[in-house]
Design a protein that fits this description.
The protein is mostly helical and 68 residues long. The protein has three helices and no strands. The radius of gyration is 30 Å and the shape is rod-shaped.
């Protein structure tokens, strides 16, 4: 009984505590990533649309064809 009090935590108990702490931190990081990913809008209609030069020239050509 005396040797149990003298030794304290065993090596394997300390290893288990460290491993569980690492897993807890990784789960916390995962939840932060999921939270930020859920804030990103998934619909294209809500996001600003940037038209490239190629799309602009196609739009101008369609307008010129329909106006003539």
């Amino acid at each position: 009984m005396e040797h149990d009090m003298r030794m304290g935590l065993s090596l394997w108990a300390i290893v288990a505590i460290v491993c569980n702490s690492v897993v807890g931190v990784l789960i916390l990081i995962l939840f932060v990533i999921l939270y930020k990913a859920c804030k990103v809008p998934s619909h294209q209609g809500k996001m600003p649309v940037f038209i490239t030069e190629l799309e602009q020239t196609k739009a101008e050509q369609k307008y010129m064809l329909s106006a003539a």
